[in-house]
Design a protein that fits this description.
- The complex is a heterodimer of chains A (520) and B (470).
- Chain A is globular.
- Chain A is an alpha/beta fold and 520 residues long.
- Chain A folds into two domains: 248 residues, Type I PLP-dependent aspartate aminotransferase-like (Major domain) (Aspartate Aminotransferase, domain 2); 123 residues, Aspartate Aminotransferase, domain 1, CATH 3.90.1150.10.
- In chain A, 36% of the residues lie in helices and 10% in strands.
- Chain A has 16 helices and twelve strands.
- Chain A has a seven-stranded mixed beta sheet, sandwiched between helices. A three-stranded antiparallel beta sheet of chain A has the order 10-11-12, with no helix packed on it.
- With 470 residues, chain B is of the alpha/beta class.
- Chain B has three domains: 54 residues, no CATH class; 117 residues, Aspartate Aminotransferase, domain 1 (Alpha-Beta Complex), CATH 3.90.1150; 267 residues, Type I PLP-dependent aspartate aminotransferase-like (Major domain) (Aspartate Aminotransferase, domain 2, 3-Layer(aba) Sandwich).
- Helix content of chain B is 36%, strand content 14%.
- Chain B has a seven-stranded mixed beta sheet, with helices on both faces. In chain B, strands 11-12-15-14 form a four-stranded antiparallel beta sheet, covered by helices on one side. In chain B, strands 1-13 form a two-stranded parallel ribbon.
- In chain B, helix 4 runs antiparallel to helix 13 and helix 6 runs parallel beside helix 13.
- The radius of gyration of chain B is 26 Å and the shape is globular.
- Chain B starts with 16 loop residues before the first helix and ends with a helix.
- Classes of the chains: A alpha/beta (520), B alpha/beta (470).
- At the A-B interface, helix 1, helix 2, helix 3, helix 4 and helix 5 of A face helix 1, helix 2, helix 3, helix 4 and helix 5 of B.
Chain lengths: 520, 470
């Protein structure tokens, strides 16, 4: 292995931008909007005459008045103070931060995508329906499931969709009241606990066995005549793949439950292994993760949710069908759970995923998976040599995705925490690592994931920054604890966030509270 | 690096054989296969995935996908009067410019330091929207109007401990179906029943007598919309809120925020929780993918405690006078609370939130006033002109904002047939209501916005005259 590269100098732009509400001056305009033609004005009269008097707006909204160049510059400055994946080496684990090809962006911005309305007649949108249907077919092949919907606009909504389908499935079998328990694991994404709870299920969360693997004994103990289903990820949050997964799904089926596979991130196993063979009845993929649609500052995402044939009738409506000549939107689905969101889903993400698969094919997808797994294990080799790191669980086993690490040794030695290191990374121009979903079973956690988009140089650079921060922790811990120093802002005082007297979730609330504190 | 058949794919830098060999050696395995030893043999795929051959170049890929998209007939090629929950408004070029920035487009969560800019932009969305709706707390953008309406109803149910919600029969069918999903529950104790309140046949507004009849001690909330799905400005907001409050229920209002430069904000008629779609504010329709919603309320702890959403708060930093940001009461959310959380949270609509912030910043108070006036005047010009056509009737003509119901019963023709014929004029007629609102006969919901000029409206009138005159 090479010696790690030298860490570069970096400083984030610091624009000290005002809040937009503080900007501009009276009479400034950011955009001219179309004005009503004189003939129309003459014919219909004042707009206000069509608004019932008590429904007319009395007080002008206190929006800023800012001209166009200044609005543009303000938001360009804000963008410069945001580390997008494409502008740095972003290894946020479980998030599958990969390259979103620019050609797919260019395609998603064509009017054939942006300027179509979801209620147009089928025969005016045959192109987009063909893309939706084709991606459905591709994902059937990739997962072994029998039909997909793209209606859920994010991963959590896909697990919610599953919980709703489970509710319908058991309900139709007259077991609704009886089968009201969902089993998940603590290392599955929190939405696998939250969304079935929202759908009214009781949730049983299994703790891992001593070695970090899901505990089969605990699963057996939890199964009973109330079990509605299992909802889990694999590899889990830790990156550990559960090799006994088929025993888990078989046991749940034997107890009368169904099995859902949260494959938000499936990057390491594309073309290697599938939901079907592992015994799952349903699964989902986040198109904004594994399938290269961009994350968009936390959305819009799109989750492809797929099921075995037996469950297909419950899918939200409409689904896209093909009769050999034309594509159709099928709304006539009496057993459907209805809608989880208006319309058909975040279709630009479907378009990008389609284009991504069509640029790679089956061998390309396999290469994606194999390279991602190789990258993650290569990173492990570098990280284990950094002072103060501990790779948690399953010694000697390879990880198939992200890897759960701990700084507990470094924290014990130096008092520097994973939160401190997370901030300090920004001083080197790197996106902060993902720590862990909650609760933190692993102390002082961090969870890097390098998918296929990163070069060996990128990974070595990333490791070099972590090594540098570890060295700082041992030699000059204060610089890490008081970080960031080269970021857009300094350490935030979080006390205000949870205090009703101090939190300010809008500018108007801020002005009121600031005014009050001055008066006190 | 790229040679012969072994050449690396441009999206996969380490696929080149030399690099791979070096990395595998460092890991200490003979091949990548060894890294998969945890996946049992019986779960391994034995064959290659059956997928189409990939395109050999970016050029070929682009040509293919462009070809597919060109089979769509767009609302730029056609003159469209479709609305009903997804609306065609003008998108300022600056909005597209900002949401195309790689820094925003490809960021994810990060921290208040690494993605500071997106947090400020999203706080600005909350602040700007707060001015429009007249509320001190606004969430970041979420999935859609329907999903946030579902969240708001659940908030009210938790706050009141009650299990029923009343809403007008005019709620958009797609939205209502989404709200129904959120109100269902495996557990009987947590189920929320939805009862629909009649509307007055002359105005399309809520029938207050029916509301009074149906409201009870188990009503958690009255949810209503402004403008209504059928297009009218609901003028009885104050009375509806009063009836809700008298029964100990919350008043939840769904709004189209583009109306709020001229129409009173829900805070003026005592709404407790406000939801709505922000897609009209600078986000393309995207075949419905542009939909996104928000939740707002007064700044009271009992409301804040029930939001499932991201709530970005401004906060001081170690440097005097510097603005920082963080999440308020994050333990509410499913990221911390798991099954004990307030509903659930996940990847939502961050980029659209930023786009809408840019839109509101560009528009300012004058822009919102002007656009509201333009929309109303043009809509009423269309209503006027349509009403003069033989056999065509606008059902609730007086209080329309941008949408209105056009009835074709007297033409003796179906909506479908009329719209099919209109396509010959390169016009998409409005949303067909005949299935969801059979009492309205052969009717369609037409939408007129600032993008529809007088010429456009005249073109519709001309087309319809020929179509129904035949």
């Amino acid at each position: 292995m090479n010696r790690l590269p030298k860490v570069r100098e970096f400083h984030s732009p610091v624009w000290s931008e005002p809040i937009i509400m503080e900007m501009g001056s009276k009479g400034a305009r950011g955009i001219l909007v179309p004005e009503t033609e004189e003939e129309i004005q003459a014919q219909v009269g004042e707009a206000g005459s069509y608004i019932p008097p008590k429904m007319r707006r009395k007080a002008t909204p206190q929006l800023p008045e800012v001209a166009q160049p200044q609005v543009l510059r303000h938001y360009l400055h804000l963008s410069q103070m945001c580390l997008g994946m494409e502008t740095n080496i972003d290894a946020e684990g479980t998030a599958t931060m990969k390259y979103s090809p620019k050609v797919n962006e260019a395609l998603a911005r064509l009017p054939g995508m942006t300027a179509i309305h979801p209620c147009q007649d089928e025969d005016t949108v045959q192109g987009i329906l063909a893309i939706i249907y084709s991606l459905d077919l591709f994902l059937r092949e990739i997962s072994g499931m029998d039909q997909f919907t793209f209606q859920p606009p994010g991963g959590s909504m896909a697990t919610y969709t599953h919980a709703c389908i489970l509710r319908a499935y058991h309900g139709q079998r007259g077991q609704d009241a009886q089968r009201d328990e969902i089993i998940t694991t603590i290392f599955s994404h929190p939405c696998n606990a939250a969304t079935p709870a929202t759908a009214g299920f009781k949730v049983i969360t299994l703790m891992p066995a001593q070695d970090g693997y899901p505990d089969f004994g605990a699963l057996q103990a939890a199964l009973c005549e109330r079990t509605a289903g299992l909802m889990i990820t694999n590899p889990e949050d830790t990156g550990i793949y559960n090799p006994r997964i088929r025993e888990f799904t078989d046991a749940v089926h034997a107890a009368g439950g169904l099995c859902f596979y949260d494959q938000a991130n499936a990057n390491g196993i594309l073309g290697i292994t599938r939901a079907k063979e592992a015994g799952f009845d349903a699964c989902h993929f986040n198109l904004h993760k594994t399938f290269a649609s961009p994350h968009g500052s936390f959305g819009p995402g799109c989750a492809a949710y797929g099921v075995r044939e037996e469950l297909a009738k419950y899918l939200p409506k409409p689904v896209v069908t093909y009769d050999g000549q034309k594509y159709h939107l099928d709304y006539e689905r009496p057993d459907s759970i209805g809608k989880v969101r208006e319309f058909h889903g975040n279709i630009p993400a479907v378009l990008r995923a389609y284009a991504w698969i069509m640029s790679l094919g089956s061998e390309g997808l396999l290469e994606v998976a194999r390279t991602a797994v190789m990258n993650n294990n290569y990173l492990s080799k570098m990280l284990e040599r950094i002072k103060g790191t501990v790779r948690y669980y399953a010694p000697g086993k390879y990880r198939l995705e992200q890897t759960r690490w701990s700084w507990e040794k470094l924290t014990a030695d130096t008092g520097v925490s994973t939160l401190d290191i997370q901030r300090r990374m920004v001083d080197y121009g790197l996106q902060s690592f993902f720590m862990s979903h909650h609760p933190w079973i692993v102390p002082e956690p961090f969870t890097p994931e390098f998918c296929e988009s990163y070069s060996i140089d990128d990974m070595e650079y990333w490791a070099a920054v972590l090594k540098q921060i570890s060295d700082e922790a041992y030699t000059n811990p204060e610089i890490v604890k008081t970080s960031p120093h080269k970021a857009p802002i300094h350490l935030v005082s979080y006390d205000a966030l949870d205090d009703p007297a101090k939190w300010a979730i809008t500018w108007r609330a801020y002005l009121k509270k600031k005014g009050r504190s001055i008066l006190e | 690096m790229q040679k012969g058949r072994d050449c690396g794919h441009p999206y996969i830098p380490n696929a080149a054989p030399e690099i791979k060999a070096k990395m595998l050696q460092a890991i200490g395995v003979p091949d990548v296969e060894t890294l998969y030893q945890e996946v049992p043999e019986e779960l391994r795929l034995k064959e290659k995935l059956k997928l189409p051959r990939p395109f050999p170049s970016e050029h070929a890929l682009k040509k293919h996908v462009k070809g597919l998209l060109s089979q769509n007939q767009t609302c730029e090629d056609y003159l469209s009067f479709l609305g009903g929950g997804c609306w065609q408004h003008y998108i300022p070029a600056v909005c597209d410019e900002i949401i195309s920035r790689a820094e925003f487009l490809t960021a994810y969560g990060g921290t208040p330091y690494s993605t500071f800019g997106r947090m400020q932009a999203q706080f600005e969305f909350q602040s700007l929207m707060g001015e429009l709706v007249g509320m001190d707390v606004v969430s970041e953008g979420s999935y859609s109007w329907g999903t946030v309406a579902g969240n708001a109803v659940r908030m009210a149910a938790r706050m009141t401990g009650r299990h029923a919600v009343l809403m007008p029969r005019t709620v958009a069918p797609e939205r209502l179906a989404t709200i129904r999903t959120f109100c269902a529950s495996v557990s009987e104790a947590n189920r929320i029943s939805i009862e629909l309140v009649d509307y007055e046949p002359e105005t399309g507004l809520m029938d207050l007598a029916d509301l009074k009849k149906k409201i009870s001690a188990d009503t958690a909330a009255v949810y209503f919309e402004n403008p209504t799905f059928l297009g009218s400005i609901e003028s009885q907001g104050e009375e509806i809120s009063e009836i809700a409050h008298a029964a100990g229920a919350e008043s939840i209002v769904g709004v189209d925020p583009i109306s709020l430069g001229v129409v009173a904000p829900p805070s003026d008629y005592d709404a407790d929780i406000v939801v709505g779609s922000a897609q009209p504010l600078g986000v393309h329709m995207n075949y419905g993918g542009g939909a996104f919603g928000f939740i707002a309320s007064r700044d009271e702890e009992k409301y804040v405690a029930e939001y499932p959403s991201w709530l970005i708060s401004i906060a001081p930093t170690a440097r005097e006078g510097e603005y920082g940001f963080g999440f308020t009461r994050f333990e509410r959310t499913s990221y911390i609370g798991r099954d004990k959380a307030k509903d659930f949270l996940g990847t939502g609509a961050g980029l659209w939130t930023i786009g809408a912030a840019v839109y509101m910043a560009l528009m300012g108070p004058e822009g919102f006033r002007k656009i509201g006036e333009t929309i109303i005047q043009r809509a009423h010009y269309a209503i006027d002109s349509l009403s003069r056509l033989d056999g065509v009737k606008v059902v609730f003509p007086s209080n329309a904002f941008k949408e209105f119901v056009v009835n074709f019963d007297a033409t003796g023709t179906t909506v479908q047939a009329i719209h099919q014929a209109l396509r010959g004029y390169k016009i998409f007629g409005g949303l067909d209501l005949s299935k969801d609102f059979p009492e309205l006969g052969h009717s369609a919901l037409y939408c007129v916005t600032e993008v529809h000029s007088r010429e456009d409206i005249d073109r519709l009138i001309h087309g319809l005259k020929e179509v129904v005159g035949k």
